[in-house]
Structures are given as structure tokens and as C-alpha cells.
Amino acid sequence: MYDMALNRMLPTSEFAEDQPLGHFILTAHVMHRALPIGAFISSAIPLASTFILRRATVYPITMLLLRSNSTGALVSLGVGGAMTLGRMWGREDIEWKDRSWRLLRNTGQTQLDDFSAAGLMVGALLGAAGRGSLPLWRGAVGGAGLGTLAGTVTFMVWKSTLGKKS
């Protein structure tokens, strides 16, 4: 099976009913998957405003993207948590364990999570370094959101071209 970098840090069991940390794993997964969606939307707004509507900006586009994506990332995390809570409200513990166990055992999903997590780390570092006059947290969080989007897109390109052989 594919060597899952993120999943080596999470405990997995042989059977779904024995899966530890089911609530945490499922909630963290959904919140992590919500980040690239939020980054896409948060990037479209300043890009459309700048290039399509031709609004004059006093900030470089990188600062606009980092600022917009820092807000978008925080909103995405909240929406992801709320989505999980809404979907799983009143469900039995075994359902949480089963869904999290399936996520950890799904090779394609874990590959996507690894690409996205790598993008998150690189994006956070680059965002913090290139934030300009933005606060450090905005640069790091905005870069992390953009990084998850970049990691997701990279995975999709890799899977559609090179990944078919594996």
C-alpha cells in the first residue's frame, strides 16, 4: 500500500469498529478538505476585482491574495467543522469510527491529503516570508490556504498524468 506520510501520525486499527480518535480524524479531515475550496473562492474575489473589474489597488497582488486567503482559511475551517457536526449530529460512535477508518485506508484520499498537507506547509512558510506589511499570522494562514489549493491542483495533475501507472 502507498506509504501515507500523514497517516503514519494517526493511529489506525485493523477493523473499523476499533478505530481510535474517530471524531477527531473525521472532523480534521473535513476541515482540511475545506481549505482548498475556501482558497479558490478567496483567490477569485481579489483577482476578479483587480483584473476583470479593473479596480485600482494600492497593494501588490500577493498581499491581496494573502489577506483574502487568511480570512478565507479561517472561514473554511469554521464551515468544515460545522459541516461535519451537521452531517454527523446524532450518529453513533461506530459511524464516526467507520468513516475515519475508511478515510485512513483509502489510498487515493491519503495521497491527496499528503499533497495538500505538503502544500500547506510550504505555503505557510512562503506566505510568512513574503507577507510584506501584513501581520505574520495573515501571511502564514493565507499562504497555508493557498498552499492547500496548490497541493490539491498538483495532485490532480499528477494523478491524471503520471499517477495512472501506480
TrEMBL record:
Stored PANTHER family: CHLORIDE CHANNEL PROTEIN CLC-D, PROTEIN CBG20488
Record keywords, A-Z: Membrane, Transmembrane, Transmembrane helix
Domain of life: Eukaryota
Lineage of producing organism: Eukaryota, Fungi, Dikarya, Ascomycota, Pezizomycotina
Ranges annotated as spanning the membrane: 34-53, 73-90, 136-158
One Pfam family, short name: DUF1757
Name under which the protein is recorded: Uncharacterized protein
